[in-house]
From TrEMBL:
PANTHER family: PEROXYNITRITE ISOMERASE THAP4 (PTHR15854:SF4), THAP4 PROTEIN (PTHR15854). It holds the Pfam family THAP4_heme-bd. This is THAP domain-containing protein 4-like isoform X1. InterPro entries: Calycin, Nitrobindin, THAP4-like_heme-bd. It catalyses: peroxynitrite = nitrate. Residues 32-176 form the THAP4-like heme-binding domain. The gene is LOC115880368. Gene3D superfamilies: 2.40.128.20. It comes from the Eukaryota.
Amino acid sequence: MAIKVHEVLKNVTWLIGGYKKLFSSKLTELVTGTWKSIKAEVYYPTMKAPVQFTELLEFHSMGQPLLNYSSETRHPQNKSVMHLERGFLRVDDDRSTVALLTSQNFGLSTLEEGYVKDKEMVLATACIGIMKFAKQTVLALHRSYRLTEDGKLQYCAMMETPQTPLTKHVEVEYEKIKGPESTREYDHKTFVN
C-alpha cells in the first residue's frame, strides 16, 4: 500500500526525512523518522543530581495531515522503562502553526501549540490534564526541536511546577537511525512499568 506524506507536513519533514524523497510518487511504505539519543540528561532544582537516560524518538506519517509521535526513555544500565509519551503532531493549513497532543505514562496529557520555522519547532502548553492521583503536578511545559547542520536533532524541555518556575528540565541530542533498524517493533512488555 502506497502512503504519500500529506502536503501540509512540508515544513516538518525534517523530522522524518527529506522533502523530495518523501513526496515521491514511488513511496511504498510507512514514512518514519526514528531518532536515537546520543546524549540525554534530565535535571531539575528538586532533583539531587542529573540523571542520564537513553531515548528512542519517532515521528511517522500515515498519509494524514499529522505525524504520529512516540518517545520511550530507558535507564542506560538496566534498560528499565522510565518515561513514555505517545501523541500526534498536527500542522495547520498555514504550514507553520503546529500543535502537539501527548499522553504520558505518569498521568499527564498536554496540548502544546507553537510554530515551525526552517528546521526548528517551538511549543508551549496551551492545556494540561493531570490525573488526580499523579505524583507530580506540572503547570507548564515548553519544548523545542532543532535540526543541526550536521543532521543531529537537538531537544530541550522546560517545566514549571508549583515549587519551581519555568526551568530547563531535559536536554537530548539524537542521531537518525537509517535502514532496517528504523522500523520499530513494539513489545508488549514495553508498556508495563
